[in-house]
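Weekly modeling sync, notes
Attendees: AB, CL, MP (scribe)

Item 1: holo prediction request
CL wants a bound-state model with calcium ion before deciding which constructs to order. AB pointed out that an apo prediction alone won't tell us much about the pocket. Agreed to run with the ligand included and paste results into these notes for async review.

Input as submitted:
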Amino acid sequence: MKHRFVTAVGATLLGISGLLAAGPPADAAASAPRSLSVYEHDDFEGRSAHLTGNDANFINNYWSGTGASINDNISSFRNQGDQRAVMYSDANYSGAAYSALAHSEDSDLTHNSHNPSNFDNVASSVRFVV
Ligand SMILES: [Ca+2]
Ligand SMILES: [Ca+2]
Ligand SMILES: [Ca+2]
């Protein structure tokens, strides 16, 4: 039901843009913000931090308003961006990789079905990919 509704809206938007017929087409790549919110505890609780670009080492990234590093302490996340965020267990994009799909969230990094089974408190770097 929800899917049919979305399809109907998309068709309506296509119809409108067809009528306007002017202006450049939307550039998907240009509207692909990198926006990953990470949390200290499960269920998006505890302290939080916002990552908006590639970062090779979380050792100098801190929970907002604190001097405490997020390194090896991320337990849940929300990826609000249009790009996939690949988090790595080690610095410099190495070690085990956890792929956080665009517009996805994980409330508990301890149990994962399509990623390393336990990625709780291990993330040390992140790289965004389209
Ligand atoms: Ca860093
Ligand atoms: Ca934690
Ligand atoms: Ca680590």
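Recorded for review: The chain has one domain: 36-129.
Action items: CL to compare against the apo run; MP to circulate these notes.
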